[in-house]
């Protein structure tokens, strides 16, 4: 038995619970006397409600109440109470606040009944009259209204200052490429629908089983709005059926469930329908201009990236779309801008690699276009302009094995055999296209806490209030804890998704492994130190004259590092010390002094093969090879799954996904999974994931960088570039559907 | 969803009597379309008459050498039936090009014929739609109409019939057997579905009190030279942008008979006698196939987003004919277009 788990391919510790159905999701918690809510949403995009007539609905037997802006009790109304960790500047959406309609699909009433079917039926009897105002939902029509958000959502979200003189250098450059790239609105569409089961505890307390990516974020939201003492609100979310960022903010069903439970003094469940999921945040529509000037040999001389993205009328949603080129490519003259324009839609939300996925799609397509102009291999162009330091911050990288990514992936793919001419490679009736791109994502760490409780029977329970949205958090945290205290995996339990657990930020930004992993490591070390102190006091202790650094834990024992045959069982140490349990809590924070001097990023190189039917233009993505430099890989199995899933997401982004807005109605019409296409198994062929060796002692104590998002960054560009190589047709508005290739 | 009552019919007589009594009642077979429509409040039946216990679930030989497929035989059972795969592989292929395994296991032959359009506006009761609510207007004509009809549409409605199976049945000249209190009748497949005209709320010529009892296939199944080619936005589990069912009889490279039906382009599976006649007696080659495609698309009109379907159909038709002529029908499991 070895207890060295970090770096070992380990199956999910929660896998069995998931496949057997033992894992319960927010809408699956049944409590006595549960009432059911059904949401009524607005039919118009903009205007106001002039009349809501719920009398017919209320007359249906079994209906308990119909909540609207007219009859809800007094609750907080100020913006601040509605803010949450992932909010953007502005005035957050307040459900059932007043008669104003801000977007089509806005919740306007909640029908609560004794049974779900009754609520659903009664909801169809709520009659609403509107005063319709004209709306605008087309970003391309409001270019002139774009503005730079005054209040920044976060540090680092603003475009970096221009360097050199990009305009001038561009005008003078031998090779120029200047084009616009259009990425449509996309919705996260996780498998699990948003749902909350609010349990009214009877003593003024409320427990809410909810789908989210941060239980404490939702706890604060509910407590602030409804004026509950923080301790009276508990939010539980142990399993999440996918989220992709959609759970970073509390969604309106948790508000509605809490509102109804509090006013009716009973437990209430509210679930969204798939159609209603399209009334939640989304990846915004972006129009991006990329202009690159290069010398004869392809050396970059000017790089301009200007992005315009949509937001709502009430919040300035922001993400980092531009700037990436300044980290990735060496160039003295760079200029970036990022503007937003308001539409009558709800506020966008972070969606897998927010900013990075759209920005790098445009950048990496533009680099491909430039390679053709220069007449050099797209990979060579990247290598020629490889940045040895991050010019945005003027800092060296904490680590950057991107060259190895390029080399290993290109070799595995067979890139050397590529014929550069578009349309020059074929397989019978299919044109073959080979394309590549680069990916980059920030390696972040946040402060977080964890608790560890070790009992003398050798069982360890570790906890922190993060989430596992299918990423494998349960598993890697268990691995870290087990290895740190040298315990068998099955003796270690990790708990998350509960607001009563030690403090954690929302689970996003690919920072969870680094953030909560560091806290878990730290708290287990603290338990280890306590054990060590006890062990030193044992009779004839082999550790008597040693320091904590001299011992290690493995196979259930504390051992001498330089003589691993000498050790004492953990249980024995505790028995001698007279302790039945050891409990510790620790908070880990990023070591800013150590991190600050460095730019910290995850990198990837993606190579894609597509086969396009010459006549019908149907596209098959027959091969993806993606090499990732993501620091230390804690679990190659779950890590690979993350990258695979993200790469499949990129197939959707490049070829299938689009939330189509009917501009006459201001309404998203592809609001179901028959019309909103995501890749199915038949769309997915070989995806080869390579993890490149990368040692990083700067990013965090574990040396991990996070892998949840990198797989989608750049991958859509690699697919688009491959389609160009196959067909000679450059499609600059995603998704690339057959009609665009005629 | 409205409250509704539920009746289970044990006999055909009972089923037709029940439906005749209540104009707001509906038969339920697999329920894969009806229940969705009820959840969206698009269809609000007062009563469901469950016909799953009628004995309409057999595939039998007919006197004229064809096959009779009971209205309740599931799409999966048709697709994998040895007589069908041997004699009517085109039908099996079309079925397997549609929906998913799970849906095909529930979906029935009768229900497939009567599935309603997938027009997004039809499914969204906040929008105007003449098919759902006659006289309210058509949101699709000036809206999002990428999936919509290019042939046979009207100013009232530009919806398409979404079925794959029906495209094959159209080519095979199937006959729909129906019954009511008033007696039984046979409807040739080409007359079963209708064009929208000024009454888009009516999809078919089946009368409200009639039940489909079977779909009959004539003896000729074109097992040698056929293909079902479906072009869609992803490799599986998506409705057709354009689909082509092609069937040929060849004699030494010369076409004796050609049949072509298109899916995803009109309010019904689209056939054109002239186009088929063009191929009769001609060599099975690309030039002739292209001419037939032009003829099939004559009069086609796009509404904006769906303009591309005209060109797509013009390319897909010769391709399907080529596959049929070569005796290499499109596979529904290997997604490469042959
Ligand atoms: C997600 C999804 C994807 C799909 N994709 C495809 C696809 O790609 N291609 C495709 O062809 N189809 C597709 N379908 C449609 C599917 O084929 C139909 O839903 C199915 O064939 C309907 O059969 P059913 O027995 O379930 O009908 P039901 O839903 O039970 O009934 C449909 C209608 O037919 C009536 N009816 C049923 N049987 C009879 C009868 N014997 N006599 C008179 N009236 C009757 C009912 O009253 C009802 O109005 C898809 C469906 C879904 C939900
Ligand atoms: S095309 Fe037909 S079904 Fe669609 S909105 Fe128009 S009338 Fe309704």
Architecture overview:
The complex is a heterodimer of chains A (742) and B (338). Chain A is of the alpha+beta class. The longest helix of chain A has 25 residues, at 512-536. Chain A contains 17 helices and 30 strands. In chain A, the strands form eight sheets. A seven-stranded mixed sheet of chain A has the order 3-5-1-11-8-9-10. In chain A, strands 17-18-26-27-30 form a five-stranded mixed sheet, sandwiched between helices. In chain A, strands 7-12-13-14 form a four-stranded mixed sheet, with helices on both faces. Chain A has three domains: 15-21 and 446-589, Aldehyde oxidase/xanthine dehydrogenase, molybdopterin binding domain (Aldehyde Oxidoreductase, domain 4, 2-Layer Sandwich), CATH 3.30.365.10; 35-134 and 188-277, Aldehyde oxidase/xanthine dehydrogenase, molybdopterin binding domain (Aldehyde Oxidoreductase, domain 4); 143-186 and 282-444 and 596-741, Aldehyde Oxidoreductase, domain 4, CATH 3.30.365.10. Chain B is an alpha+beta fold. Chain B has helices at 12-21, 34-39, 75-79, 82-87, 89-96, 101-106, 109-114, 165-171, 273-279, 286-296, 308-325, and strands at residues 5-8, 25-28, 47-50, 59-61, 67-70, 175-180, 183-188, 211-217, 226-231, 242-251, 254-263, 270-271. The chains are: A alpha+beta (742), B alpha+beta (338). The interface between A and B is large, with 37 and 37 residues. The complex binds flavin-adenine dinucleotide and iron/sulfur cluster. Flavin-adenine dinucleotide binds next to β2, α2, α6, α7 and β8 of chain B. Iron/sulfur cluster (SF4) is lined by residues 117, 119, 121-122, 129-131, 138-140, 157-159, 200 of chain B.
């Amino acid at each position: 038995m070895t207890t060295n788990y970090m770096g070992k391919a380990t199956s999910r510790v929660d896998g069995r619970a998931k496949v057997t159905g033992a894992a319960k999701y927010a809408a699956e918690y049944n409590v006595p006397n549960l009432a059911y809510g059904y949401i009524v949403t607005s039919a118009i995009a903009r205007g106001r409600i002039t009349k809501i007539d719920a009398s017919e609905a209320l007359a249906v037997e079994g209906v308990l109440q119909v909540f609207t802006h007219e009859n809800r009790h007094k609750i907080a109304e100020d913006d601040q109470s509605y803010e949450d960790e992932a909010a953007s500047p502005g005035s957050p959406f307040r459900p059932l606040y007043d008669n104003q309609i801000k977007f089509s699909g806005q919740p306007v009433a909640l029908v609560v009944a004794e049974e779900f079917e009754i609520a659903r039926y009664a909801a169809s009897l709520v009659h609403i009259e509107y005063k319709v105002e004209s709306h605008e939902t087309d970003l391309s029509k409001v270019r002139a209204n774009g503005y730079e958000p005054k209040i920044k959502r976060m540090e680092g979200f603003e475009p970096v200052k221009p360097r050199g003189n990009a305009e001038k250098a561009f005008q003078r450059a031998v090779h120029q490429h200047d084009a616009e790239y259009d990425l449509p609105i996309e919705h996260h569409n996780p498998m699990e629908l948003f749902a909350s089961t609010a349990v009214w505890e009877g003593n003024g307390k409320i427990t809410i089983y909810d789908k989210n990516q941060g239980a404490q974020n939702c706890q604060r939201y509910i407590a602030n709005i409804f004026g509950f003492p923080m301790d009276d609100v508990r939010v539980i979310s142990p399993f999440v059926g996918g989220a992709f960022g959609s759970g970073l903010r509390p969604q309106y069903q948790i508000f509605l469930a809490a509102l109804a439970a509090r006013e009716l003094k009973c437990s209430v469940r509210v679930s969204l329908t798939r159609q209603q999921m399209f009334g939640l945040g989304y990846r915004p529509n972006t129009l991006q201009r990329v202009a690159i000037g290069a010398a004869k040999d392809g050396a970059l001389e000017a790089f301009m990236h200007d992005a315009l993205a949509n937001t709502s009328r009430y919040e300035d949603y922001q993400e980092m779309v531009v700037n990436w080129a300044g980290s990735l490519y060496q160039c003295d003259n760079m200029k970036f801008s990022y503007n937003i324009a308001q539409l009558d839609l709800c506020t966008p939300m972070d969606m897998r690699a927010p900013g990075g996925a759209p920005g790098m799609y445009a950048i990496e397509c533009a680099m491909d276009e430039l390679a053709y102009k220069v007449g050099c291999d797209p990979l060579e162009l990247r290598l020629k302009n490889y940045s040895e330091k991050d010019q945005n911050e003027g800092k060296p990288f904490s680590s950057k094995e991107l060259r190895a990514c390029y080399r290993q992936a290109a070799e595995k793919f067979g890139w050397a055999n590529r014929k550069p001419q578009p349309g020059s490679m074929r397989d019978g009736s299919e044109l073959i296209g080979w394309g590549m791109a680069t990916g980059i994502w920030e390696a972040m760490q946040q402060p977080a806490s964890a608790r560890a409780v070790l009992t003398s029977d050798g069982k360890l329970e570790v906890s922190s209030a993060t989430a596992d949205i299918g990423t494998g958090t349960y598993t890697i945290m268990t691995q870290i804890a087990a290895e740190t205290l040298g315990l068998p995996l099955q003796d270690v339990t990790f708990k998350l998704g509960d607001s009563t657990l030690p403090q954690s930020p929302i689970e996003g930004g690919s920072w969870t492994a680094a953030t909560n992993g560091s806290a878990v490591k730290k708290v287990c070390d603290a338990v280890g130190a306590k054990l060590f102190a006890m062990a030193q006091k044992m009779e004839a202790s082999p550790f008597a004259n040693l320091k904590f650094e001299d011992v290690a834990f493995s196979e259930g024992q504390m051992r001498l590092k330089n003589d691993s045959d000498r050790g004492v069982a953990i249980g024995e140490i505790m028995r001698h010390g007279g302790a039945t349990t050891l409990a510790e809590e620790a908070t880990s924070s990023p070591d800013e002094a150590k991190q600050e001097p460095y730019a910290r990023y995850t990198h990837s190189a993606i190579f894609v093969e597509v086969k396009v039917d010459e006549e019908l233009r149907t596209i098959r993505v027959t091969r993806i090879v993606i090499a990732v430099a993501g620091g230390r890989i804690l679990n190659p199995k779950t890590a690979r799954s993350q990258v695979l899933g993200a790469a499949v997401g990129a197939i959707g982004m490049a070829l299938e996904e689009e939330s189509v807005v009917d501009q006459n109605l201001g309404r998203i019409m592809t609001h179901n999974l028959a019309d909103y296409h995501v890749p199915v198994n038949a769309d997915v062929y070989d995806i080869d994931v390579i993890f490149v060796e990368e040692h990083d002692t700067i990013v965090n104590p574990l040396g991990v960088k996070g892998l949840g998002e990198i797989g989608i960054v750049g991958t859509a560009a690699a697919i688009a570039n491959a389609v160009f190589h196959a067909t000679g047709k450059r499609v600059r508005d995603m998704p690339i559907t057959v009609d665009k290739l005629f | 969803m409205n409250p509704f009552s539920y009746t289970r019919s044990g006999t055909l007589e009972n089923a037709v009597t029940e439906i005749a009594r209540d104009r707001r009642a509906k038969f339920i077979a697999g329920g894969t379309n009806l229940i969705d429509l009820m959840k969206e409040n698009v269809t609000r039946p007062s009563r469901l008459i469950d016909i799953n216990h009628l004995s309409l679930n057999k595939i039998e030989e007919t006197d004229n050498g064809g096959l009779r497929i009971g209205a309740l035989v599931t799409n999966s059972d048709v697709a994998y039936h040895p007589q069908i795969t041997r004699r009517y592989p085109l039908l099996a292929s079309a079925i397997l090009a549609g929906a998913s395994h799970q849906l095909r296991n529930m979906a029935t032959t009768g229900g497939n014929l009567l599935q309603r359009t997938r027009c997004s506006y039809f499914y969204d009761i906040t929008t105007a739609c003449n098919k759902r609510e006659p006289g309210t207007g058509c949101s699709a004509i000036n809206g999002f109409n990428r999936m919509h009809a290019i042939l046979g549409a009207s100013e009232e409605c530009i919806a398409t019939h979404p079925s794959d199976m029906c495209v094959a049945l159209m080519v095979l000249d199937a006959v729909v057997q129906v019954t009511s209190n008033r007696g039984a009748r046979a409807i040739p497949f080409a007359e079963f579905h209708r064009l929208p005209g000024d009454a888009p709320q009516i999809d078919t010529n089946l009368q409200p009190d009639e039940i489909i009892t079977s779909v009959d296939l004539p003896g000729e199944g074109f097992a040698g030279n056929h293909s079902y080619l479906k072009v869609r936005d992803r490799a599986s589990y998506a409705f057709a942008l354009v689909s082509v069912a092609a069937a040929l009889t060849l004699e030494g490279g010369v076409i004796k008979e050609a049949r072509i039906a298109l899916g995803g382009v009109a309010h019904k599976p689209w056939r054109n006698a002239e186009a088929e006649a063009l191929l009769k007696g001609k060599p099975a080659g690309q030039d002739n196939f292209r001419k037939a495609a032009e003829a099939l698309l004559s009069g086609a009109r796009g509404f904006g987003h769906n303009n591309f379907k005209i060109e797509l159909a013009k390319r897909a038709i010769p391709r399907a004919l080529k596959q049929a002529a070569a005796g290499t029908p499109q596979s529904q499991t290997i997604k490469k277009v042959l």
